From TrEMBL:
Gene, per the UniProt record: nnrE
Entry-linked InterPro entries: Carbohydrate_kinase_pred_CS, CARKD, Nnr, Ribokinase-like, YjeF_N_dom, YjeF_N_dom_sf
SUPFAM superfamilies: Ribokinase-like, YjeF N-terminal domain-like
Every YjeF C-terminal domain range: 225-510
Positions bound to AMP: 422-426, 451
Annotated binding of (6S)-NADPHX, by residue: 56-60, 133-139, 162, 260, 332, 385, 452
Entry EC number(s): 4.2.1.136, 5.1.99.6
Family stated for the protein in its record: Belongs to the NnrD/CARKD family.
Cofactor note: Binds 1 potassium ion per subunit.
Subunit structure: Homotetramer.
Protein name, UniProt field: Bifunctional NAD(P)H-hydrate repair enzyme
Organism lineage: Bacteria, Pseudomonadati, Aquificota, Aquificia, Aquificales
Length: 533
């Protein structure tokens, strides 16, 4: 499913109304009725206060209020405006319909009625926040801000219509007072604020409902949420052998950092590589031999436990003479002139390459590395975290954190590589400008080695199912393995090897996943599966 920005949603709404001919009141009716249905289904309550703004979000709130009234709930409606003349046309129309159905509204256009609002919020089982939606412009001030504060302080449960009021649709940033919701019902598509941290933490569980907008008007949007129903899985054929499933070359390791390539190699086997070979510094080979059972090693020249002078040429020959199907390089390889030479050789390989960790640090010290990437004719995947991206681009970490999507997109478009920019919400950018987000993963994965696990998974899957699908599935599988591992332990104690052991279960969950939602579905389609321990 796509993830939209406010203007992309508005463009789609406007064109659906103008060109497809669906009346705006029908869209609003669909939005409000389906939201009411979710509220009635999910929550046990008798009384509700609807706090509505003057725009179309408020109009949705009035439709919800009508359906709650029809369901025999006690409904009180506050409109945050001093005059019905200031309401949007569809809002006013729904206000009139609500009154015709016997509903009562209170106009709250200045601070004088806040005490009454506070009293009603305290009395009610839940509050419906329909103050601002996608038309919100920060900041919120005056009595509206106070109303939001009252809701946050006294409501037993808060349901946000479209987006918690006070959050900006297009970013994860928090810029002022905003609603803290327990549940959000949004329309047609999720928006960035529902997905990105920290804003998404204030949305509660997010449901997306279809309101009959015409989706042809979002064709230009190339930003997607990875979904279990769309994930492509590798397949095993009965009549096959290990070479059918690829031979991944893992290159990495140095004294003190042997675990990194070991975890990448083991993850590759768990992700379905037919064969895995780790190229490692010779002096450390016994350590690798000891830990890697199913995986092979090729020791190359080393000095003081680091890749040595002859290593680049040896690796060049290994790649040339072996029948490898992809390479994952960088984990724990350290940075010196020889390792830089190794990266240069690897970039000449005529197979897909995943570069992570020190591989990226080596890359960033190569003059003109962007040109080398641009000229490379075979798929390249870079998996930087924010610090590595800062070294690659020269941007400071703050600039990257605040513009993850744009930074990844520009980098991929400029260099022709696939970028997996890792963070609390990993962003994938393709050379053609597509963006993918995954909502899988958790804070427990902010621990050493989880990146090495991702390198091994990606190295395997970009061969098994193609580069773009391999990255999408790999990132999702990695996050899901983390979520499953977190259920077995505590997020404090989660460790990278737990992820490797959870890969089989993650595969099974994805293989057995059956989408059962139409018109209305949670953003996290696996939430039911993951809650069950
Ligand atoms: N046809 C459509 O476009 C549809 C829109 N829908 C709803 O309409 C919403 C968007 O409606 P609107 O564009 O009318 O915008 P909103 O209802 O989100 O809010 C805009 C209103 O609030 C005011 N406002 C914005 N920021 C403010 C601030 N900081 N302080 C005080 N006032 C502020 C604006 O002047 C305007 O009156 C969506 O979120 C959704 O809930 C749905 O009904 C589905 C159909
Ligand atoms: K809202």
């Amino acid at each position: 499913m796509k993830i939209l920005k406010a203007r992309e949603m508005a463009f789609c709404d406007e064109n659906s109304i103008k060109l497809t001919g669906i009346p705006s009141l029908v869209l609003m009716e669909n939005a409000g009725r389906t939201a009411a249905q979710i509220i009635l289904e999910k929550l046990d309550f008798q009384s509700a206060v609807v706090v509505a703004g003057s725009g179309n979000n408020g109009g949705d709130g009035l439709v919800i209020a009508r359906y709650l009234l029809l369901a025999n709930k006690d409904v009180k409606v506050y409109i945050l405006s001093d005059s019905t003349k200031k309401l949007s046309e569809d809002n006013r129309k729904n206000l009139e319909i609500f009154e015709t159905f016997g509903g009562e509204i209170k106009l709250l256009g200045k601070e004088d009625k806040l005490i009454k609002l506070r009293h009603d919020i305290k009395d009610a089982d839940l509050v419906i926040d329909a103050i601002f939606g996608t038309g919100f412009k920060t900041p919120v001030k005056g009595y509206r801000e106070k109303a939001i504060e009252l809701i946050n302080s006294f409501a037993k449960k808060v349901i946000a219509v479209d987006i918690p009021s006070g959050l900006s649709t297009d970013t994860g940033k928090i810029e002022g007072t905003h609603i803290k919701a327990d549940l959000t019902v949004t329309f047609a598509y999720p928006k960035l604020a529902h997905i990105l941290y920290p804003a998404c933490e204030y949305c509660g569980e997010v449901y997306v409902v279809d309101i009959s907008i015409d989706r042809q008007y979002t064709k230009a949007v190339k930003r997607y949420l990875l979904e279990p129903s769309e994930i492509v899985l590798p397949e095993r054929r009965k009549n096959s052998h290990k070479y059918t499933y690829g031979h991944l070359l893992v290159i990495g390791g140095s004294v003190g950092k042997t675990g990194a390539p070991i975890m990448a190699s083991k993850s590759a086997t768990a992700a379905g590589s037919g064969l895995v070979t780790a190229v490692v510094p010779e002096e450390l080979d016994p350590i690798f031999e000891n830990s890697l059972v199913e995986e092979m090693t090729i020791p190359v020249d080393s000095e003081d436990g680091l890749f040595g002078k002859k290593a680049p040429k040896q690796i060049k020959n290994i790649i040339k003479n072996g029948k490898f199907t992809s390479i994952s390089i960088g984990m724990g390889m350290s940075v010196n002139e020889y390792t830089t030479g190794i990266i240069t050789e690897v970039l000449k390989a005529k197979i897909p390459v995943v570069i992570d960790a020190d591989g990226l640090n080596n890359l960033s010290v190569i003059d003109n590395y962007k040109n080398i990437l641009k000229k490379r004719k075979y798929p390249t995947v870079l998996t930087p975290h924010i610090g590595e991206m800062a070294r690659l681009t020269g941007l400071n970490t703050g600039e990257i954190i605040n513009n993850m999507e744009d930074v990844a997109k520009e980098f991929s478009e400029e260099t022709g590589v696939f970028t997996v920019l890792k963070g609390s919400r990993t962003v994938i950018a393709t050379p053609e400008g597509k963006i993918y987000y995954s909502i899988r993963g958790n804070e427990g994965m902010a621990t050493a080695g989880t990146g090495d696990v991702l390198s091994g998974i990606l190295g395997t899957l970009i061969y098994r199912i193609g580069v773009e699908e391999g990255i999408k599935t790999g990132v999702y599988l990695h996050g899901l393995a983390g979520d499953l591992a977190a259920q077995q332990t505590d997020t404090e104690s989660l460790k990278a090897t737990d992820l490797i052991y959870s890969i089989p279960k993650a595969y099974q969950l994805l293989k057995n996943f059956e989408p059962k939602y139409y018109f209305c579905y949670p953003v996290d389609l696996l939430s039911d599966y993951l809650e069950k321990k």
